[in-house]
């Protein structure tokens, strides 16, 4: 049996279109466009690529995109001063500080400076806390995108066994919180988990977010399970170049799973589409303009 491939790229394109279709209504009501500001420190090539595609997608959705490119040598104090300026700028609805930051900068200190109500990444402890207790806030883009794909595929998730492999603050933990909020029975597994294969084998929903290429094998997967592969690993393509690979052994998994996200073309594109969605939501909240929650 061959799994259905979950087309995250197409779903993300339709979400971006939905957002773009609402932007003019916001502009008419608020008298300005939604604005997203991205801050990148240093020259990491992968980060440069992501930041460029975020900027393009933001403009394509009719929003104002601003990018601050700072040198690798930027001090923590200077970065924090910039974030404070952005907090105070009424035209800025969303602030995204691209991670990872250079080693001499304390990421948590920078994230803690972002106004939680402009934190469209959902990384501030206030937003993590809001998610944990079920209050309205901002939810990290990657896990929220995963939930959208899961609900599109499965409808109601309640009662399903969900296993999240990975416990990072940006994917694993918020993913588990969201699945719990959808009434799944949630297990968070990680590199120290005993009998990881058995734990994965009980999952109706398996989310892999560990950052190890092809770690999850076909015989770890419950037949018919829905597999969400968050891994974005750059590996050797065997021809002197590189390619992207997920955390799941795709060739094996496709024979067992009911549905699976590919890498690339799965979760990755959803991350940027949800970022635009969060920015539009932020703009509505900050402008005090009512909006239809189901529509975005
Ligand atoms: N503050 C912050 N917020 C982030 O959301 C954030 C970050 N820092 N740092 C880096 C990670 C990574 N990330 C991705 C976004 C899009 C794709 C994406 O679109 N991937 C495409 C392929 C892209 C390619 O070909 O390289 C895909 O999977 O199909 C992947 C990864 C956001 N991140």
Automatic annotation (TrEMBL):
Describe the location of the Tetrahydrofolate dehydrogenase/cyclohydrolase NAD(P)-binding domain by residue ranges.
140-285
**Keyword Amino-acid biosynthesis recorded:** yes
Q: What is its EC number?
A: 1.5.1.5, 3.5.4.9
User: Which GO terms of type biological process are on file?
Assistant: L-histidine biosynthetic process; methionine biosynthetic process; purine nucleotide biosynthetic process; tetrahydrofolate interconversion
Q: What is this protein called?
A: Bifunctional protein FolD
User: Which NCBIfam families does the protein's record reference?
Assistant: PRK10792.1, PRK14186.1, PRK14188.1
Binding residues for NADP(+), per the UniProt record?
166-168, 232
Task: Give the source's domain of life in one word.
Answer: Bacteria
Q: Does the keyword Hydrolase apply?
A: yes
Organism classification = Bacteria, Pseudomonadati, Pseudomonadota, Alphaproteobacteria, Sphingomonadales
Organism listed in the record? Sphingomonas chungangi
